[in-house]
């Protein structure tokens, strides 16, 4: 049995793509929310999503009134031309009183450390740091206090990193699944010219076309056929990594199936190894999604903390999470490696 | 504040329907959206959507509603106008979306919500609807 | 056109080739007019036809043939055993090191080395980020694949304006683009094998596994845990533009055509003889467009003739 005094209570970090999602997260028990400005400074730069200065100020007020922290993602990589815009975003976020900035770019990390030494910094998953030496680099130079690990490590590898990390570690618990090392994928850019790293969006909507054809529903990304779905067949996001392609005479999900990450069953182990926070993906989803997912994870974390040895994911939790999943199924992703 | 609308709609609908006999369902929808949605829309962010022909298909009712958003409100369009964006779902799923009981991506993954045409407009519509607070007291709750 | 001045660098082999093939490839390279050779396995830690001492021995042979030798580290560190390997890489000081992830950077900086190369996967997109790596000891850097010519020019101007000293820029001019890196193996997946029991199937695919769309369009190449572009990246018909920004030009080895391109690049710098355009390649990123696109040179030397 775990000694409860030594158990670290992981923070539940939920997505807020707009004020309604933020409200849903706060109401259903998020310890923190993460959000971004309405522009390319964050990795969910989608039309109609995110916050301006006014709505961010209100969001912070609402969240703080309920004891919920607000992290601002500024996790794209500015180019020389956009530099002033990105640093202005850092300064604006600091002035508005966010609880932490989530950064990836070395230049921005240095800027934030120098101009806002009091401000808490988290290293974004886009920083691609997968080992404790990398985390030490960011900690020593930029004073990061937490890092979000890419979704490529196994549970034992995460444990190894946590044991030796100079900073707190946040991991993804649920949601859309990047199979590539985050921050290291130019597939979207190769097909469309726009990437998560620079434009804050993977497979941007303006390059996506859905067409009903006699062969089925076709998804195209800038003309490239990503997939063709039979009627009733579950569909996925039109990202290259989740398409069906022909390799060596076979047509299959050559990179990954449309599926979501769900680590609910690993929760006691995540708590035991000492992760500081569990992150829910999905700022591009909706208030309905945030409410459903936050409610389940709040209950699950509380249950796992109260009686870790008795913990098992309730079937209704899993059913609720599967309902909102891409491809309506889930995987433990890299944490447990069925493909290893 | 919605309470009054509930009782105003029938005579107003009747007026509109009588004025536009060829496209009554689209006109009804445009009227309802003007009352419910239009005042809450962040118009400055919706430039891309203005004057674009949209089609809402309610599959279980066999309805195909053509309409467009203008600076002054929603307008029905003749049914033959080619849409830039088409959204198709059942009555029940459309209502669940508007009530925020269902997530658009969930419905999409499960093939219960179909989107064709300009995907970027679709995303804008989806995110806009999700961002604003609307309450729909007069809509029947799907069972 | 006038002769051009640049250092010609050969990147590590991205594919998993049998030991014999690697050694005979580098025997040919020892005789070829490249100035520098970057050695090592960067893609997958399971690939061990050559181990670190083998690479070092090969490096000595190439150094004896007059090549400057660099040893490259993994792009993805997943475990303590990988880190141990990186520590050994950093501890040897016979050759400079190319860092492809930030843990390697930390170890190099902590060892006080000022001779290392910041690889393309370190995500340097602006002058301030470059200044950070320069301060940590990088002597040379490579831009990420999607950085356009305009953005690179702007970045370098910005770096100069920061007055933090100088850094060399190395720019890939030919070879497949490294588009994505994962912990999971797409080649093993193709063969329905577990990664840890992959039977080293990559050895049977010296140019990786081609991936096409369902409509038959060549698109990508699966190379173990890495995804490459099907079309090679080429600035071979843009050497004037490339050398205006970079001191060193890099080629990525491929099963076919590497030596021919080395020869062509060498003729360009000695004789000013410009290589012919390669319309089957891609250069979209150079223009800030979709990476797969190819734009013909506006004033092709062939057209000018």
TrEMBL record, chain B:
<dbReference type="GO" id="GO:0006744">
    <property type="term" value="P:ubiquinone biosynthetic process"/>
</dbReference>
<comment type="similarity">
    <text>Belongs to the UbiT family.</text>
</comment>
<dbReference type="Pfam" id="PF02036">
    <property type="entry name" value="SCP2"/>
</dbReference>
<comment type="pathway">
    <text>Cofactor biosynthesis; ubiquinone biosynthesis.</text>
</comment>
<dbReference type="InterPro" id="IPR036527">
    <property type="entry name" value="SCP2_sterol-bd_dom_sf"/>
</dbReference>
<dbReference type="InterPro" id="IPR003033">
    <property type="entry name" value="SCP2_sterol-bd_dom"/>
</dbReference>
<dbReference type="InterPro" id="IPR016830">
    <property type="entry name" value="UbiT"/>
</dbReference>
<feature type="domain" description="SCP2">
    <location>
        <begin position="44"/>
        <end position="130"/>
    </location>
</feature>
<protein>
    <recommendedName>
        <fullName>Ubiquinone biosynthesis accessory factor UbiT</fullName>
    </recommendedName>
</protein>
<comment type="function">
    <text>Required for O(2)-independent ubiquinone (coenzyme Q) biosynthesis. Likely functions as an accessory factor.</text>
</comment>
<keyword id="KW-0831">Ubiquinone biosynthesis</keyword>
């Amino acid at each position: 049995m775990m000694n409860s005094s030594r158990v670290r209570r992981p923070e539940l970090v939920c997505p807020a793509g707009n004020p309604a999602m933020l409200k849903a997260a706060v109401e259903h028990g998020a310890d923190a929310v993460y959000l971004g400005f309405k522009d390319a400074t964050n990795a969910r730069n989608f039309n109609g999503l995110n916050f301006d200065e006014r709505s961010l100020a209100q969001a912070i007020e609402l969240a703080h009134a309920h004891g919920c922290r607000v992290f601002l993602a500024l996790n794209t990589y500015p180019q020389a031309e956009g530099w002033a815009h990105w640093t202005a975003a850092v300064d604006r976020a600091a002035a508005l009183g966010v609880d932490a900035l989530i950064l990836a770019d070395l230049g921005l990390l240095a800027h934030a450390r120098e101009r806002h030494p009091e401000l808490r910094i988290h290293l974004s998953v886009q920083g691609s740091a997968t080992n404790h030496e990398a985390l030490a680099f960011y900690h020593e130079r930029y004073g990061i206090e937490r890092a979000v690990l890419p979704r490529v490590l196994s549970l034992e590898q995460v444990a190894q990193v946590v044991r030796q990390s100079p900073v707190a570690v946040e991991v993804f618990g649920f949601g859309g699944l990047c199979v590539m090392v985050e921050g290291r994928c130019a597939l979207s850019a190769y097909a469309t010219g726009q990437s998560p790293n620079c434009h804050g969006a993977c497979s941007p909507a303006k390059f996506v076309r859905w067409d009903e054809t006699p062969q089925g529903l076709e998804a195209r990304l800038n003309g490239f056929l990503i997939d063709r779905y039979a009627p009733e067949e579950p569909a996925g996001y039109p990202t290259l990594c989740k398409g069906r392609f022909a390799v060596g005479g076979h047509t299959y999900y050559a990179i990954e199936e449309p599926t979501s990450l769900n680590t609910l069953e690993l929760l006691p182990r995540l708590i035991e190894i000492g992760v500081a926070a569990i992150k829910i993906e999905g700022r591009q989803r909706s208030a309905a999604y945030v409410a459903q997912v936050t409610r389940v994870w709040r209950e699950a974390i509380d249950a796992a903390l109260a009686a870790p040895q008795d913990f098992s994911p309730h079937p209704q939790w899993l059913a609720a999470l599967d309902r909102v999943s891409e491809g309506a199924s889930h995987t433990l992703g890299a944490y447990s490696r069925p493909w290893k | 504040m919605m309470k009054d609308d509930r009782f105003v709609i029938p005579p107003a609908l009747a007026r509109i329907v009588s004025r536009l006999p060829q496209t009554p369902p689209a006109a009804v929808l445009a009227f309802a959206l003007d009352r419910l949605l239009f005042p809450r829309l962040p118009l400055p962010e919706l430039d891309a959507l203005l004057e674009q022909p949209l089609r809402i298909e309610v599959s279980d009712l066999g309805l195909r509603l053509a309409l467009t958003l203008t600076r002054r409100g929603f307008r029905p369009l003749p049914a033959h106008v080619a849409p830039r964006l088409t959204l198709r779902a059942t009555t029940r799923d459309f209502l669940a979306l508007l009530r925020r009981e269902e997530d658009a991506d969930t419905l999409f993954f499960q093939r219960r919500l179909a989107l064709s045409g300009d995907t970027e407009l679709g995303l804008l519509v989806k995110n806009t609807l999700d961002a604003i607070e609307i309450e729909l007291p007069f809509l029947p709750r799907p069972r | 056109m006038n002769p051009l001045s640049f250092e010609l660098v050969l990147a590590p082999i991205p594919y998993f080739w049998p030991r014999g093939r690697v050694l005979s490839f580098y025997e040919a390279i020892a005789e070829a007019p490249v100035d520098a050779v970057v050695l090592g396995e960067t893609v997958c830690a399971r690939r061990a036809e050559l181990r670190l001492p083998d690479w070092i021995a090969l490096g000595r042979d190439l150094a004896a043939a007059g090549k400057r030798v660099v040893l490259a580290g993994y792009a993805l560190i997943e475990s303590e055993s990988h880190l141990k390997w990186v520590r050994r890489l950093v501890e040897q000081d016979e050759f400079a090191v190319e860092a492809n992830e930030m843990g390697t950077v930390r170890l190099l900086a902590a060892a006080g080395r000022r001779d290392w190369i910041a690889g393309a996967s370190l995500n340097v997109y602006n002058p301030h980020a470059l200044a950070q790596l320069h301060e940590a000891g990088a002597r040379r850097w490579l831009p990420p694949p999607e950085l356009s010519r305009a953005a690179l020019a702007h970045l370098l101007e910005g770096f100069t304006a920061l007055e933090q000293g100088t850094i060399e820029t190395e720019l890939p001019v030919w070879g497949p683009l490294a588009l994505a890196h994962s912990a999971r193996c797409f080649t093993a997946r193709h063969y329905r094998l577990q990664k840890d029991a992959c039977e080293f199937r990559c050895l049977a695919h010296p140019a990786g596994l081609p991936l096409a769309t369902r409509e038959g369009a060549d698109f990508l190449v699966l190379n173990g845990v890495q995804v490459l572009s099907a079309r090679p990246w080429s600035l071979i018909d843009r050497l004037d533009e490339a050398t205006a920004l970079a001191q060193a030009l890099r080629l990525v080895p491929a099963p076919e055509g590497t030596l021919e391109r080395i020869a062509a690049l060498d003729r360009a710098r000695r004789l000013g003889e410009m290589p012919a355009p390669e319309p089957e390649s891609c250069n979209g990123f150079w223009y800030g467009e979709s990476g797969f696109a190819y734009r013909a040179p506006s004033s092709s030397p062939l057209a000018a003739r």
